């Protein structure tokens, strides 16, 4: 995320570069990079770009960058999101032009590149699975697992206490419960 993409036809890092907030390039070697240099990556451009709008970048992100991603990069999907206004828009490259992606009934936008929906949840841009369920962050998933383990412990303790109560009742009736 937030790497600079260099795309100069003259292979110069001093011109023709952009720094999207997030981008995805599929079918490429996974290795650490400080930037994405198109001519060093077999001419590959991003398959998906997401920009986070701010007051200072919104006009540029909605217009100039969108044109560059459409005409120069030929990026199949482009999304932008405003954390301030919660505006979310997405575009898919159909032929030579970006076409707006229609939201589903929940207001989510489908990304073919991610095979996920993008949507707003509690004021944040989030991913949703094909069924519309929130994709948890690693932290949320760990917390959920912790809570489930704690709940299982509590249920086991309650079951043990109930068994002890029943055993005590049997003893009071002169019946020795089996161990």
Characterization of the model:
The protein has 179 residues and is an alpha+beta fold. It has helices spanning 58-62, 64-73, 138-172, and strands spanning 4-6, 17-18, 22-24, 35-37, 48-52, 77-81, 88-94, 97-100, 109-111, 116-121, 124-128. β6 and β7 (88-94) form a beta hairpin. It is elongated, with a radius of gyration of 26 Å. The mean pLDDT is 90.
Fill in the CATH topology of the largest domain. tt1808, chain A
Number of helices: 3
Shape: elongated
| DSSP E strands, number | 11
Helix content: 25-40%
Biggest sheet strand line-up: 3-5-6-7-8
Order of helices and strands: EEEEEHHEEEEEEH
Pick out the low-confidence regions. none
User: What is the number of domains?
Assistant: 2
**Mean of pLDDT:** 90
Measured by DSSP, the beta-strand proportion falls in 25-35%
Q: For the record, what CATH class of the largest domain applies? A: Alpha Beta
Measure the end-to-end span: 60 Å
């Amino acid at each position: 995320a937030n790497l600079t993409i260099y795309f100069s036809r003259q292979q110069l890092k001093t011109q023709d570069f952009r720094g999207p907030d997030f981008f995805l390039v599929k079918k490429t070697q996974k290795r650490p990079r400080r930037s994405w240099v198109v001519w060093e990556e077999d001419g590959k451009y991003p398959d998906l770009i997401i920009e986070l709008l701010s007051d200072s970048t919104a006009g540029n992100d909605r217009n100039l960058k969108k044109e560059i991603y459409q005409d120069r990069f030929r990026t199949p999907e482009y999304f932008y999101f405003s954390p301030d206004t919660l505006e979310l828009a997405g575009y898919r490259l159909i032929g030579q032009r970006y076409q707006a992606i229609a939201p589903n009934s929940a207001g989510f936008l489908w990304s073919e590149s991610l095979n996920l929906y993008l949507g707003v949840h509690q004021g944040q841009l989030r991913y949703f699975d094909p069924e519309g369920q929130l994709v948890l962050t690693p932290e949320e998933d760990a917390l959920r697992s912790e809570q489930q383990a704690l709940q299982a412990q509590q249920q086991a303790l309650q079951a043990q206490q109930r068994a002890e109560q029943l055993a005590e009742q049997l003893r009071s009736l002169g019946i020795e419960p089996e161990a």
